[in-house]
C-alpha cells in the first residue's frame, strides 16, 4: 500500500541495520543504537546468586532473539529500541492506556511495565507477529479492523488488537459487553469506542469462521 | 455529482499499515547516530532562573549539546504561525528563563542515551527565584492578588473589528470572510473591587468590570418583557487534550534543510509555524508526519517544542529524538480553557428566548489569548437564536498549562453553560425539552453574533436543526423514554433524559487541490491534509474519483511529507477540512475535466463540451480516449495541461509544488473560488438517557443518540465515528475529566490518566445511535460540511440535562458532574453544596 | 555527621525539615556518659560534706527550728510532678518511635505538651507572685561561688558558705531547662497547627517553608537536649547522697539536720531560725 | 531539582528461583533492595525516579509463590498469584466469591493479568501529593500537604487520620479482612502469621508504611480460613471511571444468616482510612437483627460516627453510610426492570 511504501522510504532503514549490529556486538558500547547502554554498569559475571546477566534471549513473534538488555529496561523499550518492533506504542508508559499491550504466553500485558528480564523464555507476541509470516495474511482480528474501518488515529490500535487477540483466547465467542470488559484496559482518545468494539467483534467473528 | 463514492463506506488505504504496526508515528523513526534529548522543566508555577551553570552537565559522558532559552528565536508581535496562531511579543518561545507554568521547559540536553541525558539534566546547577503566581482565574481578579505575568493578569483586546469574532478558533470560519487582523492584545493589570465580590451571592459570578463586549438587540428590554428570567452561574473545567501520542519529535539536518518527524494535525500548515518557531526559513523545512496519534486541537500546526530537537540537532550536529513523556505532555500538551459564566436569560411563557445577558471569564493560562469565552457567546447566539443578546468577557491569565483550541473550542463550553438553563426554563414553563429547542432553533440563514458595522449580524449558510431534532426525537424514542424515565425512580436509581443543540464552525474556503492523471492511467492525488485519524485525508479526495468517474482504487494519495510537492491546504482542525478541501477537490476536478474535454476535442475533433468524462474515459463525438492516453497527450501539449502553466490565483505553495510536478501527466489544479453566502456552521443534536444511583451519586449513560446537520454525508462510518468520538469527549467533560491544582504551591496534582480521567470503553453509553439528516449545504458545490466539533457540546449538554432531569436542576453548577457532587446535593435536598467559583478542584 | 535534615519543598527548594535523629542518640549518649563519669568520680573521690562537728554546732545554735523544715510546698510539688510526668510522656512519645517502638504517639505528645505548657505557665505566675522569684536565677554575682564549687568538686578545700535553698548546680540546671523548655514549648505550640487537634484548623501555611524549618530544628534541638538534661536530673534524683532532696520533692520537707548540713542558714532563712525575716508560708522549689 | 520521568535509574536485578534465595537476598541487602512482585506499583516509583534502589529482587521466577491451594475448607493463595488467576479459580468462586468480586474490579484486565494478590494488598497509598514526590510525612518530611485549608483532598481519609490523611487504595484488602485472612510472612528469622486486620498499619503507628512488612520481610501467601466460606457476601466499589480507577469508597461484607436474621457479620470499608476499616461495632450491633431497611439504616448511621471529613471529601460520609446499608440489605436497593 501507498503508505507502507512511504514509511519505508524514510531514513530509518539505516537504523535497522544498526541495531542488528548492536545486538551482534552485544556489550560493545557507544553505537547509536546503544540506547540506555552504560559502560560502567556492564558486568559479564553475575555478582550474586540470582543476579541476572545482560545478554538474554527473548522469544518474540516465534523467533529467539539474543539481545543485550539492562536490568531496568522495560519490554516495551526493548521491543521498540532493541528489536525495532515499533508497532508496540508508548502512550503513557505507566500501565494506564494499553497502547503497549503485547501477549506474554498469550496473556495481554502492558509491556511498558514489564521488565524485559522477567519474560525470558516466555512467548512474546507483538502486533508485527499477528499476520501470517509467510503469506502475509492478516490475523482475523486485524481483518476485522479492515472490514469495519475501525479506529481513527490508530495510535491505540496495536494495543487494542493485542488485547482482543488475548481476550479471545479465553473467550472466543464473547458478547459485545463481555468483549468491552475484556478490552477495557485500553484507552482511545479519539474515543471511537463504538466502532472499535464493532471491529473487534467482527474480528472475533472472523476468528470463529477461521 | 453522482453518488458512487460519496456517502459510501470504504477502507482507507492507510489502514493495513496501521493494523500491522508498520505505520510510523514520530517516535518510530530511527536515524544513524540519533541522540536523545531530555528537558529540564520548571518546578514552580512562575519563576525566574537566577543561576544556571551547565558546565558540569556538559562534561558528563555522552552529553553532546545543551539548548537554552538564549538559543531560541524571539517572539515577535503579529507574526502568523500557520493559519490559526497569531503571535504576540509575549508569546512562548519553547524554552524560557521566566517559566509561567509548572513543567515549562527551561533547557534541553542531547546525549547518546536517554539515561545519560536524564542524569545530565539532574546534574544541571540551576536556581530559581519564585515569583508571585495564580492558578485560579477568579482569584486573579481579587484586589491585591498575584498576577500570572509580571505585566499583568488579563489580556485586553482592542474592540473586535467588523466581522466580529476575533477568537483564534474563529479563523476556521473561512478565509474569505475573515476580518483584517486586529492589533495584538496586551497584558494589563485588571482587578475587581471588594464591592464587586461582596455584591455577588455565594456561587454567583461577581459582575466586576469586563474588557470585552458585544451585543445585538436590546437586552434590557428583552429581559423586562420576559415572563421568566433565570440567572445562573456555571463553571466549565479546563481539560488537557491528552492525545494518545505525545508531542514527540525527531529532527536532523541534511543539505541545509531540517527534516522534522513530528506529530502534527496539519502537514502543509505546519511548515510555516515550525519555521517561525525554529527561526528558519519555510523552504528549509521538510515536515514528515505520515501518522499522528491524535491532536484534538493541540497540534493544529504541530507544536512549538518541535523547535527543540531541530535546534539541538543543529548544535550537536546529529539527529535528535525528543521523546515527550505523558507527564511532560500534561504540562506542555495544551488544554481547553475553562470558562466561568453567568447568564441571565429571559423567556416568554411560550418558551421563546427574549434576551440573553452573558458574562464570561476565560481561564486562559499564561500565553496567547484564547477566544473560548467569546466563542461560547456566539455559539449561544446561534444555537438558541435569542431576540437580543449582550456578551461581556475577560480573558484572565493563570499560571496553568497553556491553553489552545480543543475540539469545539468555546462552542462546547457555551452549550454546556446555556443548556442547563434552557432545560430549567422548559421545566418551569411546562414545555417539552425538544419543543423548546425547536422553538428557539436556528433555521435557514440564521443570524448570530454581534451587530456588525453594517447594522446586521453575520449569518450561516444553512441550518436544519429542527429537522435534526425531529429525527433524533424519533430514533432516540424521546417521547417513549420521557414517559418511562423522566424524573422517575425505581429503588435507588433515578433516571432522566436530556437533549442539547450544539453548533460549531463547519468549514473554511479558498484552498487549493492538486492531482495528476498519470500516463499509466492512475490518478496521483497530492494531499497536504494531516493524517490525524479523521479520515478526511482520504475522504475528501474521493470527490476526484467521483467526478472523474474512476474507481477509488485507481487513485493514489501522496501525503505526510512536504518534500512531496503538496498543495496549499487548510489546517486539519475546526471541522474545516471536509468542507474546504472537497471544494478545492471539486475545483481541481472541474479543471481536469475541462482539460480532458479539450484534449479529447483536440485529439478526436469536435467541441470540448460535447465530450463526457465517464468510466475512466473521455468520450464524445470523435470517439473516446482513455485517461492514460489523455495524460500522454497532456504531456505533449504542455502548458496548462501538464502543469507548466497554473492558474494565477493559486497559493505560492501550490505553485511551487505544481512546478515540481509539471510534465508528469494531466494536472488537475485549482483554487476553491466558489462563492459562499454566509458562514458555514455544522450542528449536532444530542439525546441522552442516564441513570443516577441516588445512594452513591454514580451516573451511567444508558442511551445516547447524536444527529448531525452536517451537510451531505461523505463517509458514513467516518461520520458515525466522529459523532461517537466527539460525544465521548463531551461525556468526559460532563462526567469525568478534570484538573486539580494545589493552590498554595500552584502545582498540578492530576498529572496521570487516572487523575485526569479520560473516559474508558466502559464509561461509554450502552446504546449509541449516530446519524445525520443528510441535507446538502446550499453554499458549497459538494454540499458537505465538517462534523468533528459539534458532537462534543451536544453530548456535554445533553448528558448534564439528563442528570438534572433525574435529580433536579440545582444539584450542580460545575462540571464534571461527579459522584461526590451529586451525592452531597442529594443529601442536601437537591441543592448543590459544592464550590462553584474555584477552578481545578 | 549531619546535624540537620534537609528536604525539598514542593518547588524543589532545599528547606530544613528537622534535626538529624542522630542528635537524639548523641544526647542520650552524652547524658549516659555524664552519668557514668560523674558516678565514677563520686565513687572514687571523697564527697565533701559539712563536718559533723560543725553541723552539730549549728544544730545547737538553731534549736528553735522545727524538726521538719518545709522545702517544697504542696503546690510546688504538684507542679513538679505534673511537669515531670508530661516531660516523660513527651520524651517517650517523641523518641520511642524513633528507636523503633511504634504506636500512635502524636495525640499523647501534643496533649502532654499542652499539660507541660499549662504547668509551666502556672509555675511562672506562681513563682513570680508567690515565691522568691530571684532565688533560682544565676547572675554575675554567682561567679565566685561557681569557681568555688568547681574547685570543691575537684577536691580542693575552698572556704566559703554553703548554698542557700538552691545550690548553684541546681540553679544552672534550671536555667538550661528554662531555655530548652521554653524553646520546645514555643516551637511546639506553633507546630500544633500542623497536626489535627480540636483546637485549631490545621494550617501548615501560616509560616513559610523555611520558617517552619527553623521551628522544627528548634523543637528538635531543644527536645534532644532535654533527653540529656532529663537523664542527668533523674541520675541526681536517684543518687543515694541526694535522696534527701528527692524525698523532699515527695514529702515536702527535710530534716533540720539535713537543712543545717547542706545549707547556709543565713542564705536560706527559715522561720524559727537565725534569719532576720520570717519565712513565707511557701518557698521556692 | 529536575523532574525527570520515565527513565529508570540503573539497578542490579536479582531473580531468585526459590523463596529461600529471595529471603537470603533481602536479608543481605535490607533497605537497599526493592521487592518486585507484579511490579505495577513499584514501576511508578522507579519511573518517577523517587525510588532508586541499588538492588531489585524480582519474584517472578519463584514458582512456589504462585497458585491457589485447598487448605481444609479454606484456601492458601500464593502471594505472586495474578489477580486474574484469583478471579478465575473455581475454589475462590465457590467459597470466597467476595474476593473474586473484589479482585475483578481492580484496575484493568492487563493489570489483573500481571498484578498479584500480594502486591495488590501491599501496594502503597495513591495520595497524589505523596506519589507526586512531595516531601510529606509519609515520604520522610514533616508535613501533610493533603490536609491543609487549600488542599485538594477529595480522595482522602475521613477516619483515623494521624497527621497523614492517605487512604488504603486496595480492593482486595477489605475483602481479605472481611474473610479473616492471614498473611504469611517470611524473613531470615523464620515465618510469622499475621491476621489481615493487623497486617495494615495506620500513620499513627508508622507513617511511612502501609503494612507490617519491614525490610527483609517477604509476604509469601495469604491463607483464608474456612470460617466464612460460602457466607452471604456483598462487595461494591464506587469509582469515577469504570476502569483503572481506585475506589472512592469500597465495601466488603460477609454475613452468616441465622434464620431470617443476621447471625454474624464481618464488615470492612476501604478508602476511608489508611487501613481497611473494620466496623466491629456495627458487626456486633446488627447480630441477631433482621436484614431490613431499619437495620440497614441503623448500621449506616453507626458506621460513620466519628468521621472527620476534610474540605473536599465530605461526600464519603453519606457514601460510606449508604454502602453499609447496601451491605446489610445485600443489594443496591432495587434497579430498573424496564
Q: What would you say this structure looks like, in words?
A:
- The complex is a heterotetramer of chains A (210), B (841), C (285) and D (338).
- Helix content of chain A is 36%, strand content 11%.
- Chain A contains seven helices and five strands.
- A five-stranded mixed sheet of chain A has the order 2-1-5-3-4.
- In chain A, helix 4 (140-148) packs across helix 7.
- The longest helix of chain A is centred in the C-terminal third of the chain and has 17 residues, at 193-209.
- Mean pLDDT of chain A is 82; it is low at 1-47.
- With 841 residues, chain B is α+β, with helices and mostly antiparallel strands.
- Helices cover 27% and strands 23% of the residues of chain B.
- Chain B has 22 helices and 36 strands.
- Chain B has a seven-stranded mixed sheet with strand order 3-6-1-16-13-14-15. In chain B, strands 8, 9, 10, 11, 18, 19 and 20 form a seven-stranded mixed sheet that branches.
- In chain B, a hairpin with a 2-residue loop joins strand 23 (488-490) and strand 24.
- Chain B is globular, with a radius of gyration of 27 Å.
- The two termini of chain B are 53 Å apart.
- Mean pLDDT of chain B is 94; it is low at 81-85 and 163-179.
- Chain C has 285 residues and is mainly alpha-helical.
- Chain C has a domain at 48-203 and 242-262: Fumarate Reductase Cytochrome B subunit (Up-down Bundle).
- Chain C is 58% helix and 6% strand.
- In chain C, strands 1-2 form a two-stranded antiparallel ribbon.
- Chain C is elongated.
- Chain D is 29% helix and 20% strand.
- Chain D contains 13 helices and twelve strands.
- In chain D, the strands form three sheets. A five-stranded antiparallel sheet of chain D has the order 4-5-8-6-7. A four-stranded antiparallel sheet of chain D has the order 9-10-11-12. Chain D has a three-stranded parallel sheet with strand order 1-3-2, with helices on one face.
- At the A-B interface, helix 1, helix 2, helix 4, helix 5 and helix 7 of A face helix 1, helix 3, strand 27 and helix 19 of B.
